């Protein structure tokens, strides 16, 4: 598995709190009396929350800014709103080389929100002397752009929870003056929490040292034993250390109706694979797959779950369903090389050399700079006795990576474990597609109940439904949705870029390039320029590709797909063609 993946912008690695919807849907399907007692909560749109700036002079209180962000996310989510998680915000900033704690201008926040297709940005500042606290918060509406009135609350730091409760309720009221929940009704939806526990939790999240992080998170759990969030964070720390024995007990404490439950279960499945327990891993991934398919209207698949389910089955010698799951993962995510690579490994294990070579060649096409993909392709060709083809690929690999460009492979066709160590288990769940699923479900319900949506709302609805159809693999339906979006907003950059992606998948490269150019005419984007550059490479137009990727790097100097592609072009300047 390569450390940095060049993947299409649509599947940016954004972990989102929309996962809460799965738990709610599951609870409804199981006949939960609680959900039956409450009508559906009003939803204003998709929120993106940034840390609140410390306007005072006490750095020791910086945790309050991160705490206000996290608390705002949790309380909006508890009130039924759809909110990008803190990690989602950090990942998006990282894509553009922005530090997680950077102070951002309103223009930058707006740009990030536009790229994420959010409806509202929440930001603010605070001042505190350690005893008193003043918080100012605002909502920036993305489309049409408008800065809504400021909401201000004052009080003692010890009253942060009540103060913040009123603040968030005010923000919802500013987005919609007809917001139906009273402050008392809004408050009843929230988890009671102490300021001390919140402080320890946030200090644990932002700590640079693992031991400090573990200490603070454990203290948060001691103060609030029934609060799942610190337990999930503790599990993540141990998971990232590859200490699965320590991670599993914390992940098991996450209830099924919690917004991080899907991620916790996914990590538990990965741990079972790492611990050599494929039967238990299969049970987890199969359950996740079944739950998501039943609780979401379109039943679209998540490739990471399918990949790990397939590997769990393969390690038990159950190859037909393993190949089916991995094949579906490959089809759902056409830019990722790990899935055809894993298919190639399973074919090798069954001594199907021609099939293996086909899968490895597809992996190389998807990720030309991955030396391991090339090495296995050459290995499969050598095993078939296709020496001239293997030598041609070997020469190409030497041109790209030099004499040490290919790893040495030591494989024993009679030993299954010889292949297992090369399998690419997906350790991170990309929840973007799950967000689109849940969002599409919500939009369909809204459309059914309100046929008088504005043109802007209609555009957004078509865009999200279109993306949902792409995730489900229904490109014809997706194209209809994106064209409907353009009918109401002909210059919509997102609709043009999504159409470009569909045309690229179908091999209509001229049409794809034209749509991406139209997208850039409406809104410049490093991601779109990078995709356009890759299309030019497929069309054997390296100079046009270089121009686009250089513009992308200038626009976002630390955007990995752009910088990686530029490096690839520089290394292959003599030939200039796509590898």
The N- and C-terminal alpha carbons lie at a distance of: 19 Å
Query: Percent of residues in beta strands?
Result: 5-15%
Nearest-angstrom radius of gyration? 25 Å
CATH class of the domain at 44-191: Alpha Beta
CATH homologous superfamily annotation of the domain at 44-191: ABC-type transport auxiliary lipoprotein component
The beta-strand count equals 7
Query: The CATH topology of the domain at 44-191 is what?
Result: Rossmann fold
Share of residues in helices: 55-70%
User: How is the quaternary structure best described?
Assistant: single chain
- At CATH level 2, the architecture of the domain at 44-191 is 3-Layer(aba) Sandwich
What does the average pLDDT come to?
A: 83
The secondary structure category is alpha/beta
Give the CA-based shape. globular
The largest sheet is: 7 strands, mixed
- The number of helices is 28
Low-confidence stretches: 1-38, 435-456, 575-579
What can you see in these coordinates?
The protein has 579 residues and is an alpha/beta fold. Among the domains are: 44-191, ABC-type transport auxiliary lipoprotein component (Rossmann fold, 3-Layer(aba) Sandwich); 432-446 and 453-571, Tetratricopeptide repeat domain (Serine Threonine Protein Phosphatase 5, Tetratricopeptide repeat), CATH 1.25.40. The chain contains 28 helices and seven strands. Strands 1, 2, 3, 4, 5, 6 and 7 form a seven-stranded mixed sheet that branches. The longest helix has 18 residues, at 278-295.
């Amino acid at each position: 598995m390569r450390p940095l993946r060049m993947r299409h912008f649509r599947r940016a690695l954004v972990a989102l709190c929309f996962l809460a919807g799965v738990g709610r849907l599951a609870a409804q399907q199981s006949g939960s009396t609680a959900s039956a007692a409450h009508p559906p909560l009003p939803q204003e749109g998709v929120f993106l929350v940034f840390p609140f700036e410390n306007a005072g002079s006490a750095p020791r209180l910086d945790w309050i800014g991160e705490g206000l962000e996290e608390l705002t996310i949790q309380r909006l989510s508890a009130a039924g709103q759809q909110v990008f998680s803190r990690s989602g915000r950090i990942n998006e900033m990282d894509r553009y080389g922005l530090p997680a704690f950077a102070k951002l201008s309103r223009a930058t926040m707006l740009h990030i929100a536009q790229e994420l297709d959010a409806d509202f940005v929440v930001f603010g500042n605070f001042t505190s002397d350690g005893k008193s606290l003043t918080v100012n918060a605002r909502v920036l509406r993305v489309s049409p752009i408008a800065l809504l009135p400021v909401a201000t609350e004052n009080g003692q730091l010890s009253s942060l929870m009540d103060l913040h409760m009123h603040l968030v309720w005010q923000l919802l009221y500013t987005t919609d003056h007809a917001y139906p929940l009273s402050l008392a009704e809004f408050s009843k939806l929230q988890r009671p929490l102490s300021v001390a526990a919140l402080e320890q939790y946030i200090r644990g999240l932002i700590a640079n040292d693992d031991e400090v992080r573990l200490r603070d998170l454990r203290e948060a759990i001691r103060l609030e034993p029934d609060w799942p969030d610190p337990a999930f964070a503790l599990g993540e720390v141990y998971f990232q250390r590859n200490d699965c024995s320590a991670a599993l007990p914390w992940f098991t404490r996450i209830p099924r109706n919690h917004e991080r439950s899907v991620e916790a279960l996914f990590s538990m499945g990965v741990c079972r694979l790492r611990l050599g327990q494929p039967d238990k891993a299969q049970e987890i991934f199969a359950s996740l797959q079944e739950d998501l398919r039943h609780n979401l209207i379109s039943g679209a698949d998540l490739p990471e779950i399918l990949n790990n389910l397939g590997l769990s089955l393969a390690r038990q010698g159950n190859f037909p369903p393993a190949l089916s799951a991995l094949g579906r993962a490959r089809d759902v995510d056409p830019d990722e090389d790990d899935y055809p690579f894993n298919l190639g490994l399973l074919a090798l294990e069954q001594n199907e050399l021609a099939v293996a070579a086909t899968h490895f060649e597809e992996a190389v096409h998807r990720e030309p700079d991955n030396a391991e993909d090339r090495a296995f392709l050459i290995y499969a060709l050598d095993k078939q006795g296709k020496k001239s083809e293997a030598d041609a690929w070997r020469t190409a690999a030497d041109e790209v990576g030099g004499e040490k460009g290919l790893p040495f492979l030591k494989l024993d066709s009679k030993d299954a474990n010889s292949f297992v160590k090369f399998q690419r288990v997906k350790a991170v769940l990309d929840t973007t597609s799950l967000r689109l699923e849940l969002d599409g479900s919500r939009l369909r319900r809204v459309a059914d109940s309100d046929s008088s949506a504005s043109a802007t709302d209609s555009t957004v609805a078509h865009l999200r439904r279109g993306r949902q159809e792409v995730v489900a693999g229904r490109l014809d339906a997706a194209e209809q949705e994106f064209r409907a979006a353009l009918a109401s907003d002909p210059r919509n950059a997102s609709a043009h870029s999504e159409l470009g992606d569909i045309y690229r998948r179908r091999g209509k490269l001229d049409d794809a390039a034209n749509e991406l150019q139209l997208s850039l005419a409406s809104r410049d984007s490093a991601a779109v320029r990078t995709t356009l550059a890759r299309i030019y490479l497929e069309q054997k137009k390296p100079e046009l590709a270089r121009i686009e990727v250089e513009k992308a790097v200038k626009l976002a100097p630390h955007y990995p797909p752009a910088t990686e592609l530029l490096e690839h072009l520089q290394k292959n300047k003599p030939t200039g063609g796509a590898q």
